[in-house]
Amino acid sequence: MRDLKHLIYFEDLLQEANNALVKQAKAEGRRALGYTCYFMPEVLLDLEGCFGVRLRAPRCTSPDIATYYMSSRTCHYGRSLLERALEGGYNFLDAQMATETCTVTCRFQEHLQMMDVIKNPDFFCEFTDVPFKKTENSYLHFRKQLQAHVLDKLSEKFGIDTSDEALMRAIGQHNEVCRLITEIGEHRKEANPNITGYEFHVIQLVSLVCPKYLILPYLRETAEELRTRESEPRPWFRCKVVLSGSENDDPGFTQLIESCGAMVVADRYCYGSIPGREEIVVAEGQSPLDAIARHYIDTSMCPRYMEQHVMRQRKKQLADIAREYGADGIIVESNKFCEYWSYERTIDTIVLNRDFGIPVCSIEKEYINSASGQLRTRFQAFIESIEIKKIQEGQ
Predict the structure, then answer these.
(1) Cα(307)–Cα(313) distance, rounded to whole angstroms?
(2) In whole numbers, what is the pLDDT of the chain averaged over residues?
């Protein structure tokens, strides 16, 4: 296929947290707000005068110093973030908008708060509590938390306009990003898609780590380009898979899967688009903040929701995603020592195959993919098993 016009530029933006567009926005006087979790609504961080940056630790190799503070038995992702912070990689941040969700990222953010790691005199870290259930009380609690720990703090510290009018403008910008990413992702439903899973992963990531108002023109051009981009004459892949699981901000992991012959057609993982790129709907007479609070609780498929009916619903949703995108199997990954996703991955491996007849490959990995040879062997074996299954079924 013809190379996407902006792909190399997008890849370059992912090489550092403080990338070229972040520097441009900072030079224009906007405040950079870091976050690590879907439960910190990015739309609130993209109000006029500030912008959200979902934190990654690109090119981190060995988080030795962070391990001293956090121990070797915590998720490599959280340790890598702290290592990059200790190296000065996040000194551009004006605030870290933390959520009390994932345990290891909580610990990372607590260290930012207590250790004076970020060398920025304006920096502060604020924690927002997130409910464990999807009830009316949960919506009310979350809405109050977002008001007290996000909107009020942004107004008090940086003079950000947090009025309903400002929130509606931020929602409009957010929804445009969601429409463009969704349109780009829809191409993966085709029999012979004109975009690879790796390319989509890169595009989705830049929409999370760059100021929205600066990345939007590139997303618009990319969506327009894909409307006429021609696929390979013959499919280059041997099967299609859904990639599901914990935090995954490494396009190289998707690229590794695809180099083995399986196209990644849907990304149901932390930092992915399912969920993540659904438009926020504000009903008539509803406050924008209420719509935002309800949206993020309702759309989340995070395994921290442990009620039985919600857990069963997540399995069905994942199976429905596989069918919608024409996937032949599902790869479920979790980072080592990830408490929530370790349980979820184990259950998915059994239930998706037993109850829905979908082949599943279960992977436990590190944040840094140093064991690529072992992973390649696992993926190749999984792809071959899918091909054998197709032959047996006469497909």
Answers:
(1) 10
(2) 95
